[in-house]
Structure formats: structure tokens, C-alpha cells
Amino acid sequence: MTKRLIPRKAPELLLNRINEQYGYAVNCSYPNSFRLLNRHQYEILQTINNHDDLETLSRRFGISPEGLKKFLVLLGKTDLVRFDDEFSVPQQPEGPKSLNFWIHTTDACNLGCSYCYISTLNTHKGMSDEVRQQFLLKLTETVRKRGIKHIKLRLAGGEPLSQFKVWKSFIPEAKDSLTDLACKLDVAFITNLTILSEDILRFSKEYSIGYGISLDGVNETHNATRTFRSGRGSFQVVDANLRKLLAENISVSVNTVISNHNLTRLPELTRYLIALDVPFRYSIVKGEAIHADLLEQCLLESYAIMEEAIASGWQFAQRYQFCDLKPNELGFQTCTSGFSGGAIYVDGSLKYCHVHFGQDDHPGSSIFNPKLDLVDMIEQGEHLEEEKSEDCQTCRYRSVCTSGCPVYRVDGKDPQCSLYHRLIPMYYELQAKERLHLLQKHGIV
Amino acid sequence: MTNFDHDLLFDDAAVLEETLGESSLSLTPVTGNCDCSNYTTIQEDDEEIDTSEGTGTAA
Predict the structure, then answer these.
(1) Of A41, A80, A129, A383, which is least surrounded by CB within 10 A?
(2) Distance of residue A233 Cα from the nearest chain B Cα, in angstroms
(3) CA–CA separation, A411 vs A405, rounded Å?
(4) 3-class SS of residue A430
(5) Residue A234: what are its φ and ψ, rounded to 5°?
(6) What global pTM score does this model have?
(7) Distances from the Cα of A173 to the Cα of A55, A133, A140, A168, angstroms
(8) Do the chains contact at B9 and A150, CB–CB below 8 Å?
């Protein structure tokens, strides 16, 4: 007798319609499982109740059991459906194979932003050559010992491009040393983008340097907070430099922190960023109150603009990120801190996160400690990433949200949890509309 | 094969990858250059997540 095959839906399956003809399915615990479904596929998947077997379902829909089985095997490729209960969730690997460090290159900054959270701002100068060389020594030691294959450095500050000259020497040296150990090095500047020379552009192209740019809004919205010390706004300079980077095909992404100051101008910024066709992330200010209803309304207005842009071919899923959510790639924790990364201050101390610089109640290691490699230091340091609420352990979106930034959780949750529950399905709906547009554009449907 | 059977085998990802190229739909983090980027998965780690596993007994 043939064994009864009972299809089961993934516990974290999200299944919704986008119009009369199409819907989408995504297993929020399986990377890149997103799938656009036609009406028949959607109806069958919706009918699966984890009790009825293949024969019963095929009779109900008047289709052959073989045809239905083929469809379910297709869905099974990304764990949308299984014939057993062995659904997987992203797990932390035993040890990291890639490392990711925030490097505080300097405390000096040429802007005087009203809300800057760097408590040590303008108290020290740039990182010394002695610290950089010790860091390289620790990197190579760790790569050799742990078999690390990839290292990413995010050069931040203060304003890291004010330190370009010394990093221009360091980066090729580090790249050569790590290449000899079969380890790839990627570097990005986290910058206000007010300093950009031909030399920086040339070097960035040659060494594939990436850029993360802070932008608060368009024109006066940006200028209200991000000013030179003279009081002059920086938007015009940033806009011109951003266009130069894009013209040179240098990897760029824009980071906007939404606060009460700029939220009503979010739709205007969305249009600007879509027109530039630059990847961008909207995140919500942490550690201070924000007008929740207005925030949601402005985000919805921005999503409506994105929907219009999708219809014109804008690549939504490759261009937009909301907070630290990972709707497709998923994850086991929010950032690399505590597992495969940390933040290194100008004096060579290593902290869990860069927001802890200058705070004595957050102990760290020193890269000058001869007994520990960088992974030892991370392991022996703080581990805020593990503090998650009970709700989060069973939440459908736990691999998408991973409980948000570990430093700013409230009772083990991201303060924006309820907003995420409303907006994550909306993200997938826009992704489905983008996929449908692509299929229509190529005459496939 | 009926229209219904044909409809059932609609595979959006496969047809788009055929048209646009292999891995054209794979999404990497949009803001890899941002301040709080996620852990970069290296091939060997995939064994832990088991992304290649098919559907239980139906495979």
C-alpha cells in the first residue's frame, strides 16, 4: 500500500493575494523563498490544511495526483510546503567565516549635526598608524587561525574621508596581506559625503570601495540638521558628490534615519532617491519618541510612490530596505555584533557596538591584548543579541526582524514591532507586484 | 495536460532566471554599506541552514 502523502504548509508561511489573478507565498524562515503564484496555485496552497492527503486534494480540484505532487515538490524546493515536519529556520553557524568591523577612524567631523550620538566627537584626532598596524596584525592572525574567508571594514567616525590619505595607504596593504591568506577584503566609508576629490574617486574605483551616505531629506530638510560648522547646509554638496559616485558606478547606499524632524518630508525624499536609482534604507530613530500615526501615514505615502515606480520598472527589492528587516535573505541575528563583528575605537579598544564608545559601563577588549584573537575578543565581550522576548521566539517574522537592534530593544523587542507586523506584508506585496511587472514586461504572463 | 495542470507548473522564479540569467533574482542586502549590516554567509555555512534540501518524501 502506498504511503499517504499529506502536504504541510510552513509554519511561517505568508500567503496573500495581490489581485484577482495573482498572489504570493513566502516562508519567512527560509531564505529567498518568495514566489509569485497564479490563481490556481494560490487556491490550492490556501486549501492545504495539514490533514488532507494528496489524493483528497487532487479529487477536490479535479486534477491528477501526479500533477499536484509536481506542484508541491516545486513549492518544496524552498520549504513553502513539505510532506514532513522538518521545516528549517536560519541557525547561527558554529563559528564565523566572515568578519565585519566598524572602524572609528577619527573623532573629528567637519559637520555639526544637532543630534550626533558620538559622545567622543571632536575629543581625539584620527586613529594612529600604530593602531592600524596592530589591527592588521590581529586580522591576519585571526584569518590564519580561524579560516576566515571574508572581511568587511566600515570606516566611520567622525568623518572618515577627512582621514582618506592614511587609509589610502592602509587599504592596499591590508588587501595584499589578506589576499595572500585567501581572504577577501571589502571596505566602505560611512560618510556625510561632503569631502570627495578626484583622488578619492579614482581610488574608490580601483579598490571597489563602497559608500554608505547619511541623508536626512532633500534640500532644507537635510540642511536643517546637517550643517557645516559655519551653519551652512550641506545638501547641495552631498547631492553633487552622490551623483559623481553614481556616475562612476561606485557602490553607494543612502541611509536615512526618520525622526519627528523629517518624517513629513519622507515622500519627497522617496521620489528623489527613486529618481537617482540609488539603494536606500529608511530606519526609525532609536532611543527617542516618534509620532507613530504620522510615521505610518508618511511611510504609506512613500510606499504608494514606490508602487508607482515599480510599474515603471524601478527595482524595488534591490533598492529599498526598511530598518534592519531582512525579508529575503533572513538571518539569525540583526547585525554582526557579538558573533562576527564589533566596533573598534581610535585607540584600538573593541566594543560591542559603536554607540558604546566613551561609555565605561560597556567593557571591551583591546586589540593590543596579545592573548586573544579578534574572534576571542568578540566571544568574551558583551552579548546583547541573545536578549529576545518570548513573543519573538515564536513570531512568524522572527528571522526577518530578529528582534531589531540589540542595543535599543524594549523588553526584548524592537520598539517598532507592531509597525513591522503591518508593514512586512506590504513589503512582500510590493515585491510581488515588482515580480509580476517583470513577467509582464518579458511577455511571460 | 489540462490548462489547470499547466497552470500548476507555473514557476515564476525559473522562467525569470531563464530570461534574465542565473541568480538574477537572488537578493543580497540592499545596504551592505550601511552601519548595521548583517552577517555575510559564506558557502560553507550553508550546510548549517541546509538550503539545498528538497521536500521530504516527495523529492
Answers:
(1) A129
(2) 23
(3) 12
(4) helix
(5) -105, 0
(6) 0.93
(7) 64, 10, 12, 9
(8) no
